[in-house]
């Protein structure tokens, strides 16, 4: 078994350090946390561009959204101006991606900067955003996150209905018409491999996907997150020569953390 994985390990040597670090961190710290990706998408609109200056993304995990309690800021990957019309017809972009406490999200808030505009017939107009630069755009959401599962939270702008004209003033105002929803992406797998003297590595394999986890050196706990639904072959590769390798097949379900139980390697 060790020879079987040797060539694969050499091929991905430049990536393996990052994978190991990620999997090790997940194994030790994933309990009680879900991974959340906030994505921006849009419906078609009859404008040349609708530019929104997004500076912060926050979620609320408190039942009382009228207070300052329960708000968590999600570090944005690229704060700045987004043309909503770039994200039509199923195209989206990731605003933020991080682990958050499992449980219910009640609200999401976008804090906007001052550089918002709409382009009509080649002419750019300032887009007024009342209060959005202070208290932010508050979007109601009821999403329950399960620990160990990756979720995509979509902010689906309807740009065509969100830009309105302020009477005969010639000014344009952003009155967002937005749909928000969260969906689980794939599932997760956890378990234990014993004894610790076997120095086991754990591989999860499905078609061309091959993932590695390094179990906790004391407890043997391992974890794989963000797995595609379906059957996975889990290989326990004993690094200690005195122990035999072992393989099991586990079925992973989207939105579920599958417990593979304890696998004991024998001499």
UniProtKB/TrEMBL annotation:
Q: Which residues form the signal peptide?
A: 1-21
DUF4382 domain location, by residue? 33-176
Q: Which domain of life is it from?
A: Bacteria
Which InterPro entries does this UniProt record tie to the protein? DUF4382
User: What Pfam families does the entry give?
Assistant: DUF4382
Tell me the keywords, alphabetical order: Signal
Q: What is this protein called?
A: DUF4382 domain-containing protein
